[in-house]
Each structure stands twice: as C-alpha cells, then as structure tokens.
Design a protein that fits this description.
Structural class of chain A: alpha+beta
Order of helices and strands of chain A: HHHHHHHHHHHHHHHHEEHEEHEEHEEEE
Radius of gyration of chain B: 27 Å
Mean pLDDT of chain A: 81
Largest interface: A-B, 91 and 72 residues
Number of helices of chain B: 8
Oligomer: heterodimer
Number of domains of chain A: 3
Helix content of chain A: 40-55%
Largest sheet of chain B: none
Order of helices and strands of chain B: HHHHHHHH
Radius of gyration of chain A: 35 Å
Distance between the termini of chain B: 55 Å
Number of helices of chain A: 19
Helix content of chain B: over 70%
Chain lengths: 565, 190
C-alpha cells in the first residue's frame, strides 16, 4: 500500500530546486509533489534518499562548487537541468548557478558565508551591469530558503496507526457534521426559551448573535424537555466521537514545519475556534450539569459565547473540508470496511491530507473495530446519561450523574433543583401566615393557602425540564393562573411577573407572556402527585407551565403581578 | 489570481471563508466586550484561558498520555512474547485491555466531579444530597468493565481453542515458539 503513491519515478532532486527557485511559494501543486515523494522514502529507507536531499539544501543555500559538481554528476539531474535550460534560456536558476560558481572561483570566502550574507559579500567587487542580477539573486536566495525549509525532511513524530487516514476521519467527521448542528440549534433555542423579550435570556445582550426571537410556545408541553434533553444528551453522547475525531487528525497538530503556506497558517488559527470551541463547550457543559463551578465564570455567558466562536470554526471547517470528506468517503465502500477484519486492514495510500502514517505499523484493530469502539463508547455514554432526561425506569441508569438518584420512594421522589436551605428560606416565610399577593392594575388581592385550595382545582401532568438536560414529569394540582387573573379583575393581560420569597437567586423573579399565563394547563401548583408540595419542591405554591425551562417554574411564590394593556 | 494562489497556498475562496471566521470572532468580542473573557483577579478563571487551555490540554497532555499508555501496552505485550512464557494462543489480548481502560478513562473524564467530590457545596445546594455514592459506584463500574472484558477474552480463547485444536498443540514444542515470535508482528490469521 505504500507503493500506491509511487506513480512518479524517483525524481531527481535538482529538478525540484530549479522549479522552486522560479517561484517563491508554489502552494498546492508543490504540496502534492512533496507528499507524493514520501512513499519513496518509505520504501527506500532514510539513507539513500535523505543524502541527496541534504545536498539539495546546500546547493540552494550557498551553492558551493563541490556540491554543484556532486549534483551534476547525477545523469538524471543533468538531463533535467538541460531540459530546463533549453525551455527557458533566461532561467534564473542557471544564472544563479553560474554566478555562484564564478563567485566561488574568485572569492573562496563566499562559499563559507551563511545564508543571506552570501549575495552582499561579492557585491563589493562587482561591476554595475551585474547589479540587477544580485537583487534577483537575493530574492532567489530568500525563495530558496523558504522552499528549503519546506522541502527539508523534517523529523515527524512516529505515528504508526494504519487505520488513521482520510476515510476514517471522514466517517467521524460525517457523524459530527450530521449531529453537531442539532446540538447548536437546540442550544440557541434554549436562549430563546428563557425569554429575551423580557430581558431574561442569558447572556442578556448578544447583539444580533442569536436565532430569530419568537415567543416560546406552550405547545407541546414537552417542547423544552425535548430541545434541552437533545442538546445536553446528544452533546454528551458525541464526546467519544469528538475524541475519536481529534485522535484521527492529531498528526496534523504535531506536523513539522507547523505551516507550509499562509493558507495553512490562517487555517490553523481558525482550527483553534473549532477544537478549542468544542472542547470548551464540552468541558463547561459537563462541569455545569454536575454543579462543579470550578471555572469561576458565568456558565451561561461562557457557554453561549464559546458556542459562537465554535460555530465560526465549525462553519469554515465544513466549508473547507467538505469536498475532502465526500471524496474520502467515496474512496472505499462502507460495506467493504465492515467486511474487513484486522488481518486485512492496511493503511490508505498517502495523500495530500497528510493523515496517513509514513511508516504504518501492523493493525491492532480493524477500521470496523475502531468505528464499533467509538459507537460502543457513545452507546455506553447514552446508557449512563439518558436516564436524566427520560426519567421513569431509566432514571436509575444514570448512576454517575446527580439526577439519576432517588429521594426515596413516594410521591415527592423527584429531582430538587435548589433546596430551601440554599435559597435562604426561614420557616416563618412558609408558615400559616403565608399569603399569595395578586396585583392587576389598581386591584390587589391576598389569598391564603386554604383559600386557594377552595378555588377550582385543576390537575395536569407537566414536566420540569432543566437547562442541565434532566427532566421529570409529575402530576400537579392547583389553581389555573388565568382563574387567578380573573379573580383580581384582569381582562387584557399582556404579561405577568411572578416573584418568589426566596432571599436570593438568579430566578427569583420571572416574567411570562400572556399566552403562557392563559394556557389552561398553567397552574399555581399546590399539590404534586396528590400530596402537598414539600418545602424543597416549592411549598406553599409554585408555578407549573407547559414548555418552559425548569428554572422558570418558580418555587415559593409570593407575588403575581398581572400587567394589562 | 494564480500568483495569489501560489503565494497564499490555496484558492482565494479559502481566504474569504477564513476571514468570515475571524470576523465572527471579532463580532463576539465586540458584542460581549473583551473584559468578559478575561478575569483580572484569578487569571485561570478566564473564559479565554479555558478556551485555549481546553485545546492545549487535550493536544499536549491528554493525547500524549493516552498515546504513551497505549504504546506501553503494545510494547509490553510484545516484550512478554519474547519471554519464555509458553504462548498459548493467537488471540491478541490488546483490545481486551484497551476497552476497559478506555471505558474507565472516559467515565472518569466525564464524571470526575462526582467521583472526586469536586463542587460539593454547590452540589449539596442544588440537590440536597452529597456526592458520596459516586466513587464506589464508579469503582464498581470499572470492576464490571474489566470483569466483562476478562470474561469476553476467556470466551474468545475457548472458542479459538475449540475451533483450532492444532494451534494449541503447535505452541508446545520449543521450536515453534521462535516462529510465533517472528510471526507476532505480522497480522494474525484469525
């Protein structure tokens, strides 16, 4: 398989020197040439091939006569040179060579001069007509230096895996290309679900960097549960794919020289947005769902802006690499890979992607094995995380996550988001003296819990769906919010603000749209699963509303302020 | 345009696309304000540091560590073949070690805050519980992964021995040991 790129006969190195001296940066054609030559090295071993390479470098740098002679002694090189010379009479290479050979003849010091100083030393004793040549020569020396750096047989880290290559990378890439946009969109939707119209989205001011804003719908009631469950769940499930993708391209990170062209330099900077972005989003997300705030900054701010920087890297990476991905995926059939076991697994042909190992070792795992391993890892993560989102009998499978745990059997065995102690509540706040205060325009109404229980009760199954991805559906009983609005005489509600009596907390006060407040399933919940709310679940009363983020299901409600037109 | 492409190293379209990326970075910095990304009091709690740090830690620490671990595993396994331990089978064990190790690493990487009880205060505030059960749960999971892998390898060995009874007998004479050694680098037929 190493012979696959070996279509061209071993090319005489001086030819490439001649070619390079004519143009400073040859870019893409040159790269192909370079990588096309590598398999020869692989086949011949380092000895015979690297020796002429180093000679080639010396010729380009200071062209000592002895080196030129050595190269000229190669019949192929002579042929190549005479071809070049006849094609272009004014060949700069032959000019430069004849000049330096002459310089070497009459001034032996020149030979020993380091790179860059060589053209200036002989210029002192030169006559005027030759001067233009020297400017040109200086440029040529610079050009040669660049091309020499590029052509130099840089030591590369010994990446050996024979399965690394554009095909496998493209498979991982295709999986991420299909799934990451879903994670991105659902994440950006969550920003809208928080209610940017009321200034409740986090972060608050994002300019135009958001999806088109709309009022978050109340139907279906599981909308936020779905979008955020997918965002967090899929994000976690993709971690093995992301790590595998990074493994498959890691030789590019360590390649020498780090850049071969301005294009590559620019692209590598953009890759920081891609790689840093995805890892940053994963790291902050994973820490946040486990309440590990060691990062110290605001999770919302960091995750949101990190996402946009990631999006910038993701979009341009897809734009630049999509053709390569499609081409690589077409290069072999998936079914044939699935039929190939480890014994028959060999490296792909080396190509311009630079992903294929120069000296691949024997396969320790087949491609199907590697894909199976990543898919299996992904499935494993699914089992360990999905219970947080689905609840029910799967809840217990999330054994390593906070929200898989039980609060004991009974009607109030579901997740507490913030304890009463953490919210700084004192018993007198939720004793019999508690009153719900309703305001609507000039009207004011104060209701005790028995009074609320005496009103028409409504029972509905609604989810608490947290931004952290976990959710739980419970059966809530309480007074419809629209009945409360009617009780205080509100006719034309435009919005309402609910306030909790908790001492502190980012979600102490939340504003809702009229549509959300008037929905027949929107409740001031007093009971859950037929029993009184516990203090940690929001006693004496909490908001339950279809489709909203969990942090907006305000607990320990004290005031509802209806706003009219 | 050709000379540009020759200097730049790619089609001009490439540069346009890249500029789009960098313009978006600038937009983010302008809208959010540069101070959002820098924490002047605790430098390592800056968003920018974490952003770059995430990439650096993966590429310069995590990857070298797991690559080195895998290299040690493969070298170690190869070395044991040279020892005068009777080689019993042609079923390579390497992936039966890699799998549970990868599983252990992945679960630790994803769930370490609970396992090492990092963020205990906020965890308790949020849930009313402690992180006590996670370490032993994780250790049991690790045990299960290694156990399952051992069991699977034992089954593979048994199946292999049943399918090719000759292979077992072949490795007994000392002459055969050397041939297995040289063959060990070549792909196994199974």
């Amino acid at each position: 398989m190493t012979d696959a790129g070996d279509s061209a006969a071993p090319r005489p190195d001086p030819e490439s020197v001649l070619g390079e001296e004519q143009s400073v940066g040859q870019g893409a054609p040159h790269d192909t040439e370079f990588s096309g030559r590598d398999p020869i090295t692989a086949a011949d071993g380092d000895g015979p091939e690297s020796a002429p390479r180093e000679g080639d470098a010396v010729v380009a740098e200071d062209s000592s006569p002895s080196q030129s002679d050595a190269v000229d002694a190669d019949p192929d090189a002579v042929a190549a040179r005479s071809d070049q010379a006849s094609a272009e009479v004014d060949s700069p290479a032959s000019d430069a060579d004849s000049h330096t050979i002459a310089a070497g003849a009459d001034d032996s010091d020149t030979v020993a001069e380091p790179l860059g100083a060589a053209p200036s030393a002989p210029s002192a004793g030169r006559s005027a007509p030759r001067h233009p040549l020297k400017v040109r020569e200086r440029l040529l020396t610079l050009g040669s230096a660049i091309s020499v750096l590029r052509d130099y047989q840089w030591p590369q880290l010994p990446f050996r895996s024979p399965i690394r290559g554009p095909w496998l990378t493209s498979v991982f890439g295709a999986v991420l290309l299909a799934s990451l946009p879903i994670v991105i969109i659902t994440g950006l939707l969550s920003w809208i679900a928080y209610g940017p119209r009321f200034g409740q989205a986090m972060p608050g001011d994002v300019g135009w960097l958001h999806l088109p804003v709309f009022d978050w719908p109340t139907r279906p009631s599981w909308l936020y549960r779905l979008t955020q469950g997918v965002h967090v769940g899929l994000g976690l499930i993709l971690i093995p794919w992301v790590l595998a993708k990074l493994w498959s391209v890691i030789p590019k990170f360590f390649q020498l020289p780090p850049v071969r062209s301005p294009a590559q330099a620019v692209e590598r900077i953009s890759l920081l947005a891609l790689v840093g972005g995805i890892l940053f989003e994963i790291a902050t997300g994973v820490l946040n769902i486990q309440y590990d705030y060691i990062f110290g900054f605001s999770f919302y701010t960091a995750h949101y802006w990190g996402a946009w920087v990631f999006i910038s890297g993701f979009v341009v990476h897809v734009a630049v690499k999509l053709p390569t991905m499609v081409r690589s995926l077409r290069s072999r059939s998936f079914r044939s890979v699935l039929r190939t076991n480890r014994a028959y697994t060999v490296a792909e042909a080396r190509d311009e992607t630079g992903l294929v190992a120069q000296h691949p070792g024997p396969a320790t795992i087949s491609r199907r094995g590697a894909i199976g391993l990543v898919a299996g890892g992904s499935f494993f993560v699914t089992i360990l995380t999905i219970g947080e989102t689905t609840g029910g009998f799967l809840r217990g499978t999330a054994i390593l996550l906070p929200r898989g745990r039980s609060y004991g059997n009974g009607p109030t065995d579901f997740q507490v988001n913030r304890t009463a102690v953490a919210a700084g509540l004192t018993p007198d706040q939720y004793s019999d003296g508690w009153r719900l205060k309703l305001t609507g325009g000039a009207n004011l109404l104060s209701l005790s819990r028995p009074q609320l229980l005496a009103m028409e009760q409504h029972t509905v199954d609604l989810p608490i769906a947290c931004v952290e991805g976990w959710s739980t559906v419970q059966t809530w009983t309480g007074v419809r919010l629209r009945d409360l609005a009617a009780a205080v005489g509100v006719q034309h509600m435009v919005s309402a603000r609910v306030e909790s009596f908790e001492r502190f907390g980012a979600f102490k006060s939340v504003q809702f749209t009229a549509e959300q407040m008037l929905h027949p399933d929107s409740l001031l919940a007093l009971l859950v699963n037929g029993v009184n709310l516990t203090i940690d679940h929001g006693f004496p009363a909490r908001i339950m509303m279809p489709g909203i983020p969990g942090v907006h299901t305000t607990k320990w409600v004290e005031t509802i302020e209806f706003r009219e037109r | 345009m050709r000379s540009f492409a020759r200097f730049y190293g790619a089609h001009p379209l490439h540069l346009l696309t890249m500029m789009c990326c960098f313009a978006l970075w600038l937009a983010v910095i302008v809208v959010a304000g540069p101070q959002t990304f820098i924490n002047t009091h605790v430098w390592w709690q800056s968003i920018a540091v974490w952003f770059i740090g995430a990439a650096v830690l993966h590429d310069m620490l995590l990857f070298p560590l797991y690559a080195l671990a895998d290299l040690s595993l493969r070298t170690g396994l190869r070395a044991t073949r040279g020892l005068p331990i009777p080689k019993r089978t042609a079923v390579p064990i390497v992936n039966y070690v890699r799998l549970p190790v990868l599983g252990t690493g992945l679960t630790f990487l994803m769930f370490f805050p609970g396992i090492i009880k990092q963020g205990a205060f906020f965890y308790h505030n949020a849930t009313g519980m402690t992180q006590d059960p996670f370490l032993h749960r994780w250790l049991l999971l690790v045990a299960a992964m290694f156990g399952t892998s051992a069991l699977a390898y034992a089954l593979r060995l048994a199946l292999h021995a049943r399918r090719t009874p000759a292979a077992h007998a072949h490795n007994q004479p000392p002459a055969a040991t050397t041939t297995t050694q040289t063959a060990s680098t070549a792909p196994d037929p199974a």
